[in-house]
Amino acid sequence: MKTRTLALFDLDETLISGDSDYEWGLHLVSLGVVDRETYEARNQEFYDRYRAGTLVLQDFLDFQLYPLSQFPRAQLEEWHAGFLASRILPMVRPGARALLDRHRDADRLIVTATNRFVTAPIAAALGITELLATELEQENGRFTGRAVGTPCFREGKVVRLNQWLAARGARLADYAESWFYSDSANDIPLLSAVTHPVAVHPDDRLRAHAAERGWPVISLDEA
After folding, report:
1. Which pick of 24, 112, 138, 202 has the fewest CB atoms within 10 Å?
2. How far apart are CA 187 and CA 172, in angstroms?
3. Residue 184, by phi and psi: left (phi above 0), alpha (psi -120 to 50) or beta?
4. Longest Cα pair distance anywhere in the chain, in angstroms?
């Protein structure tokens, strides 16, 4: 008999009320380590394309990962600590921790397109130990500015989840219930794969898709 439960959570605009990729770019601007005018404009352009569903992922990765290759890990981690405290933790939605706790007996994962460097400390701060994120290439302890493996984006989220399950000798079908909470139409492939898809503060395209299929739509803006 199937008894296990799987609970998957998108991060950006779902558990937090912003986009950690975008906010990391703004943080770098605020530190003066990238050119404000050029970087802010490109950062906004990619964010708008993501929301519209027209993002070419490789173009974004080339842009977003390059600054990580320019600085030592210790410096990046020091900047990230300030980023987490000043920008991200205040964005955690009031109901996010209660939702995570509701699934405390399940296998819980955050599944995000944002890279692991940016998101691993955020997942840890939320008490989630399992993270599927876009992985970064490293050489001699430094980031190269390139991603490795399947990016955790659109259909790639399904691929990465299946890889994670297979490494544990499991399949999605082994779970009696599987949940995925997301805000974005980019996540329709993974939402469609679970037994309980839930739209959280959905974008317009996901809201329409959820309405057509009778998926629940929820808010996490109240504790």
Report:
1. 138
2. 17
3. beta
4. 58
Q: Catalytic residue positions?
A: 10, 12
Residue 46, CB-side half-sphere exposure with 13 Å CA sphere: 21
Cα–Cα distances (Å) from 219 to 4, 15, 18, 57, 78, in that order, read 26, 10, 14, 28, 33
Note the pLDDT tens digit of each residue in 55-109: 887 888 888 898 999 999 999 999 999 999 999 999 999 999 999 999 999 999 9
Residue at token pair 């890990």: 73
Sign of CA dihedral 41, 42, 44, 45: positive
In sequence order, what are the residues at sequence separation of 6 or more whose Cβ sits closer than 8 angstroms to the Cβ of residue 52? none
Distance separating alpha carbons of residues 70 and 109, to the nearest angstrom: 30
Q: What is the pLDDT of residues 120-160, one digit of tens each?
A: 999 999 999 999 999 999 999 899 999 999 999 999 999 99
Within 10 angstroms of residue 140's Cβ, the number of other Cβ atoms is: 5
Cα distances (Å, whole numbers) of residue 50 to 46, 79, 126, 178, 185: 6, 25, 24, 26, 10
Are the C-beta atoms of residues 125 and 110 closer than 8 Å to each other?
no
Give pLDDT, residue 53. 82
Pairwise CA distance, residues 64 & 39, whole Å? 10
